[in-house]
Amino acid sequence: MHTLSPALKKSMIGMISLLLPITSLIAAERIGDFALLDQNGAFHQLSWYGDHKAVVLLTQANGCEATRAAVPAYKSLQARFDAQGLEFMLINPEGANRELVQQEISALGLDMPVLMDDSQLVDERLGIEQTGDVIVIDLIYETSDSYITMSTVSDTEWVGF
Questions:
Q1: Smaller CB count within 10 Å for the chain: N or C?
Q2: DSSP state, 103?
Q3: How far, in Å, CA of 49 to CA of 150, rounded?
Q4: What is the CB neighbour count within 10 angstroms for residue 77?
């Protein structure tokens, strides 16, 4: 099982809380596996990242100042934690045109997938409330279920690090 060690989780959470606004994370709630296309049309299924310790998502919207402001810190987090088994992506819950998202991501100097949640179903399951938020999905696999479940880091875990 690949999961975040308490020390790695504490270090990452502390760094994120210092660098980025964290406002809408689900408290220890489990979410089922999901799949979305990215801005290039590539298919991404969360369970495919089972060899990673966690998936980190930055909520993105074209032309959004909160997203633009969060990008430098997000890149810093990726540089620091990518080699430790974390997968960094963005998620766009507004159903934007893929070409426009490609242009925006390129202008921001990012080279990572933007999961396009056109229906906003994943957005709702993750509790996303605003752009610029960061969500850490700690991949926890339970063999007792017929599907894979994941849990997100709670608001309370961000406090005090």
A1: N
A2: H
A3: 11
A4: 22
